[in-house]
Amino acid sequence: MTDLYHSQRAMRRMRKLAMDRGVIAILDVGSSKVACLVLRFDGIAPRGGVEQMGALAGQSRFRVIGAATTRSRGIRFGEIHGMNEAERAIRTALQAAQKMAQVRVDQVIACFSGGEPRSYGLDGQVTVLDDAVAEQDVARVLAACDMPEIGANREVLHAQPVNFALDHRSGLVDPRGQVGHRLACDMHMLTVDGGAVQNLVHCIKRCDLEPAGLASSAYAAGISALVEDEQELGAACIDLGGGATGISIFIKKHMIYADSVRMGGEHVTSDISKGLHVPLSTAERIKTLYGGVVATGMDDREMIDLGGDSGDYETDSRSVSRAELIGIMRPRVEEILEEVRARLDAAGFEHLPSQRIVLTGGGSQIPGLDGLAARILGNQVRLGRPLRVHGLPQSATGPGFAALVGLCLFAAQPQDEWWDFEMPMDRYPARSLKRAVRWFKENW
Predict the structure, then answer these.
(1) Count of structural domains within the chain
(2) What is the DSSP code (8-state) at residue 226?
(3) Is 371 among the domain residues?
(4) Closest C-alpha among 360, 365, 343 to residue 403
(5) Among residues 131, 130, 139, which one has the least CA distance to residue 161?
(6) What span, in angstroms and rounded, lies between the C-alpha atoms of 159 and 426?
(7) C-alpha span between 36 and 94 (Å, rounded)
(8) Does 277 fall in a domain?
(9) Is there a domain that residue 229 lies in?
């Protein structure tokens, strides 16, 4: 834990150095595509001239000056399985983005969807040393949070204070400077498999880059796809990717839960390939052009030419109805949504005041998915697109780029995390306590 604490602080310093230089790269390492953006920062303008914590941190003015996307290789379920292939894919996307931006980039912020994320809710309280809360008191209350047993070979990816309470007043965003005696804090911690993180960092370094930050794709997609009211009142973001489906829950503009389902759009493509006996490339084309999950009377008569290049006329001239294609796709989509429903139930999503669900990611573009998701998930469901970012190409504004755009906002407007404060090491949480409280079940 102590090593991770220092490495996260080092990455934060690296990111600040890159922002001072004015250029940084953003990398989304996905199972179906590797996307890269190059950002140019024009400066930081704190709101009202006062530095604040959390979502109200100073806004950074930035614009996209380079963008590139390439097919993902060597990556399955959001994790690196072939180091050489993944390195080539990352280099291809990075070099194309640098060529467009006409600038060399040395630091990169990356996000990934694998690693089997797990959420924990922590709480702690301390007595304020002076009359007013100082930054040292915030560091002490974070260090006072009891550390659960996260398991072997697990690393903390995010550790964010989501709620402060000073004496009898709760729901404080930034307690610094306020007068009180007893300071309490609720914190959300997200852990991932250590091997997945180490492989990603090693692959980035092999591409002659320095990691300036790591983030969960589910967290980044939620920042981008959820509007401000949804982040405030409580909403879930379902990021339907190629190899994994990310789940994140936000309330009070903070992520309080994250998880991942190891199924995505590539599994739907694989089902089509096996069901219709066509290559994966043909199955992906058919899914994109004719796919759906709700059949109508017209679909029995709409025929789809499968095509092919085997040289056998009878095999290459086959055709199927769209209703048959939907019959292959729908069971897998229902299975993914049922898994998402189980994760939301385990997280206590029904206890939130607002239970809005936003679908994003490349898989969310299947026609009729929002209606099917509303029936299975039982809540208000809408399709989400990422926020508009200055300089972003039109080709990168679709739902499939929600995590990439969210990572830009993560770089420009970082929420305060555990390692942003000078932690007193003598008060560092012990790992022996085997309890993890999901604070939002009791407080919201």
Answers:
(1) 1
(2) S
(3) no
(4) 360
(5) 139
(6) 19
(7) 6
(8) no
(9) no
Structure tokens at 346: 């385990």
Q: DSSP assignment of 386-407, as one string?
A: PPP-TT--GGG-SGGGHHHHHH
Rounded Cα gap, residues 241 and 114, in angstroms: 11
Residue-by-residue DSSP string for 172-213:
ES--TT-B-SEEEEEEEEEEEEHHHHHHHHHHHHHTT-EEEE
H/E element, 335: helix 322-347
| HSE value, Cβ hemisphere, 13 Å, CA-based, for 167 | 7
pLDDT at 337: 95
With residue 248 as reference, give the H or E element that holds it. strand 245-251
Q: In 3D, which of 234, 198, 274, 241 has the Cα closest to residue 443? A: 234
Break the chain down into helix, strand, coil percent, rounded to 5.
40, 30, 30
Do the domain assignments include residue 129? yes
Q: In angstroms, rounded to a whole number, what is the distance separating the alpha carbons of residues 257 and 247? A: 8
Residue 33: CA atoms inside 13 Å, Cβ hemisphere, count?
16
CB 211 within 8 A of CB 14: yes
Query: How far out from the chain centre does Cα 74 lie?
Result: 20
Q: Which two tokens stand for residue 1?
A: 């834990």
Question: From CA 415, how far away is CA 222, in angstroms rounded?
Answer: 14
Whether the CB-CB separation of 248 and 257 falls below 8 Å is answered with yes
Hunting for tokens 């092999």 — which residue is that? 206
Which token pair is 187? Answer: 């914190």
Domain extent, residue 176, equals 119-190+426-443
CB 321 within 8 A of CB 298: no
Residue carrying the six token digits 């983005």 = 97
pLDDT at residue number 50: 38
Taking each helix axis from N to C end, the angle separating 280-290 and 322-347, rounded to the nearest 10 degrees, works out to 80
Tens-binned pLDDT, residue by residue, of the chain (444 aa): 455 667 777 887 788 888 878 899 999 998 899 999 999 987 654 443 334 444 333 345 788 999 999 998 888 888 888 899 999 999 999 999 999 999 999 889 999 888 889 999 988 899 998 888 888 888 888 888 888 888 888 888 888 898 899 988 888 888 888 998 999 999 999 999 988 988 999 999 999 888 888 899 999 999 999 998 898 888 999 999 988 999 999 998 899 999 999 999 999 999 999 998 888 888 999 999 998 999 888 888 888 888 766 656 666 678 889 999 999 999 999 999 999 999 999 988 888 888 899 999 988 999 999 999 999 998 789 998 888 888 888 888 889 999 999 999 888 877 777 667 776 654 444 433 333 334 444 444
